[in-house]
Amino acid sequence: MPYAEVAVDAPAGRVTYTYGVPDGISVGPGNLVWVPFGSRMVRGVVVDVTAQSSVENTRPVGSVSPAVALTRDQLDVAAYISSRYLCSPFSAIALFLPPGTERQPQTVYRLARESGLSGPELTEIESALLQRVRERGSLAPESLKRGEDVQAAIASLVEKGVLVRQELPRERRARIPTFFIVSLPADSTVTAPENALPRKAPGIRQAKVLQYLRSHGGTASSEELRAAADATPAVLRSMESRGLIRLEEHRAWRTTLAAAPASPASVPVLTGDQERALAAVTQSLDAETFSEQLLFGVTGSGKTEVYLRAAAHALRRNRQVVCLVPEIALASQTVERFVSRFPARVALLHSGLTAGQLSDEWERVQGGDADVVVGPRSALFAPLSRPGLIVMDEEHEWTYKQDDAAPRYHAREVAREMARRAGAVLLLGSATPDVETFHRAASGDIGLLHLPDRIPGSLGLPAVEIVDMRDELRDGNTSLFSRSLHSAIEETLSRGEQALLFLNRRGTATLVQCRHCGYAFACPRCSVSLAYHSVRARLVCHRCGYATRVPEECPRCRSRSIRFLGVGTQLVEDQVRQSFPGARVVRWDSDVPARERGGSSLQDAVRGGKVDVVVGTQMVAKGHDFPGVTLVGVISADVGLAIPDYRSSERAFQLISQSSGRAGRGVQPGRVVVQTYEPDNYVIQSAAAHDYRAFYIEEIRYRRQTGYPPFSSMVRLLYSHYDEGRCRREVERVHGILEGRIASTDVRITGPAPAFVRRLRGRYRWHLTLRGSKPVDVLAGVHFPRGWVVDVDPVSVA
Fold it and tell me: Which of 664, 622, 658, 681 is nearest to 463 (CA)?
């Protein structure tokens, strides 16, 4: 009997398990299977098939899903993810599984034995349930009305040994839509004349169908006939059975932006810098060997055009292309560019699609109908068989790191491994590269391609003015807007141009406090202050979503002197409307419904000139191209600088630089006003000068002195529990284990200590940080019970 090594979908599935393969079942590496695990049936993926078992007793594979067969390369990349990010093999493999395979098994209850239990031994509900099982053979809980009495009755029958619980495989694939091509029979003599059909409703509709077909060349789609003759599928099938028409079924693809019609775009002439960058990429594509390049170009320098030309070259060589973007909101804009250049060849993959759309796009890629894939980090796992180019636009964005669930991978590292195995090119693009990426380029580990200037026809980088808000206060200006920014907005609106005001904080006030005793309103579940949202008239926790009404008095001293401190985007929006009453203002942050900011409605409104002022968070600073925006105001450049995280300066620089880069991308010159209380900070000065290298020199000096990445690797170990004492003791226990393991290494441990957000969603949080050349090796074989999060290469340690 052959044996299958299976990565199972279970909390204890940190290793593979051996199962016997019964006669009549054929499995191979990459197959999705259902296997018994304890008392349940769980999903698993076969990673190997052997003739001998490494264990004495095995259980048999239950069933195989023939629709899933992962490749050896996919399994190898999954093994890399599991090893690097210390996650279970199945959680890494699951990244490659097609949509629809994530269904959980169906729980059913069957009769354990024919029992004589009845009457007083069973309650009325138990008797009714038992009779239902006898009649139907099994009982699915979801088929019953929910209620504690029903659940208790089922549990009682199981405890008495009357019923047994089983879990059966269940996969629910998205419905495959179809349509019909309707045509007249080849032998037209078979077709009855319209006047021979019954003069009732069905006959009248059938006559209309025949008339329409004869007047339209004898062929039409079922959709056409439904609109023209009210021909339902039942009418068409009835006509087919009588030989009046022929039906030919075709697959209908659900519409996504990738499938929308697009007019071919004109291809611009490349600058010399673009040509040199493209030549380096195409040379690597021609060599068909792994290459990693950083395309370092200022905002508006034409990085996307280099992506498009490189993609065209890869396609000519019969290789496939993946273009990753950091946000779903940016995917539509990038897809439009790719679709206009490569009509009918682009697939869009992201979580915002419906299950049917996602399934269709996945099948288009798998079937070879789409050889260009665009989307956020999950698009990296599309079923491409010949990847030749992987593009990561805005490679510095921390959204490329999955940090809310295992596996906590970084798309850049996984893309590098994929490209290495496929002999492909990994092209990283950014105006403000990740410090670690730029260090690799500066050290010669990867190629550095530079686009120092904006493309011809643009007016160069915008002029930046730094405003010291301390001077504004000394002069009596307590407004959100400095005098310089206020007058700049006035001038911009008078010229009919657009302004963008950037502040990376939501809400109206970030702190609500009692003037009398100093009590600050905080979330009861998280150790953070509640923010006031005037639109909802609520105090809201930005960590867990808790919301409550605004209190009329302080709960501590009963004073009614409640004050609202701090600034958020809602307050900025309100102030713009008050100061500039005729302006058309929109707010763009995560409080705006996803259907508006995730689609194209906000983008179209701004691009179409229907908006005068955009107020937004980091969402508007990432890659958007708004030609009408000539003024950018950074309301508070200091936001984020004080966060206790070694990346805080880098993030602040990137946000200021990226938001500034939205100005002057059209035919009118741009202007940027940066408001700050720290005008001499190197982050502010470098961003205002559009000088990434100056920032990098200061930042890399700090990283070298402190031993932070790229001069070390990091692992963050975070434990959470509802009891803080237990939380602290558990972290101290693991700290003691690790101290004995680091003695002969260069790894150092920081902590135990409370996390920056000490309590989140009711759970206390303590953490340890490991820093050294190979901190992952120190963790080999260490068991982390439930409650621990192991985050390799964290994007934040706050």
Answer: 664
